[in-house]
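Ops channel
N.P.: pipeline sanity check, posting one input/output pair.
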């Protein structure tokens, strides 16, 4: 019995090792359904250098939405070469006073500030807030699944770039989850301790009242 367990364990190890080195990469085929481990691989004969280059961060951005921000995601759906590599990126643009509202991902995140000045921070499960004013070139990490945010506190536009340790890290904004969803207002009142008037005001902003 012990020999059988050892054989089975090493068989699994060999399978995992062979899987790890079977392909150099697996550019996602977006025409096929995505499974728990990502997309199926694009036919190698159809792959070119262009598959590995992402140009979506080029150019200026408008920041005229409610939060005065613009978020450009380089997740696997936009950048299929990330498929299976466990990494992704995003560009964050902030108007003056702009914010990335408090949100979370399934992953950890690293941010580097390229222009401007922002306050960035996260809140841990003991409700301790860790936040700092960042200047150009500063880097900060937000641990996995922690609620975090960024606020432009400068007098000019600000731009930052983030990297996350998943090709599809997910993104859930707390504000929109509460007020832009189909969750009834009376439940939102109960779970937030906000008044009915404030809940309905916020739901009207997001068109769900």
């Amino acid at each position: 019995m012990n020999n059988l367990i050892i054989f089975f364990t090493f068989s699994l190890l060999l399978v995992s090792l062979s899987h790890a080195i079977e392909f150099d990469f697996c550019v996602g085929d977006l025409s096929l359904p995505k499974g728990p481990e990502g997309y199926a691989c694009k036919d190698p004969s159809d792959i070119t250098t262009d598959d590995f280059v992402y140009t979506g961060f080029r150019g200026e951005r408008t920041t005229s939405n409610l939060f005065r921000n613009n978020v450009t995601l380089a997740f696997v759906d936009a950048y299929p070469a990330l498929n299976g590599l466990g990494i992704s990126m995003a560009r964050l643009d902030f108007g003056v006073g702009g914010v990335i509202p408090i949100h979370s991902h399934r992953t950890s995140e690293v941010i580097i500030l390229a222009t401007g000045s922002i306050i960035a921070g996260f809140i841990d499960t003991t409700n301790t807030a860790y936040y700092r004013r960042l200047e150009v070139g500063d880097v900060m990490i937000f641990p996995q699944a922690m609620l975090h945010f960024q606020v432009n506190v400068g007098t000019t536009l600000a731009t930052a770039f983030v990297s996350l340790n998943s090709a599809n890290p997910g993104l859930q904004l707390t504000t929109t989850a509460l007020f832009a969803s189909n969750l009834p207002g009376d439940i939102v009142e109960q779970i937030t301790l906000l008044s009915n008037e404030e809940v309905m005001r916020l739901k009207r902003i997001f068109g769900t009242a």
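N.P.: looks fine end to end. The chain has two domains: 1-169, 171-209.
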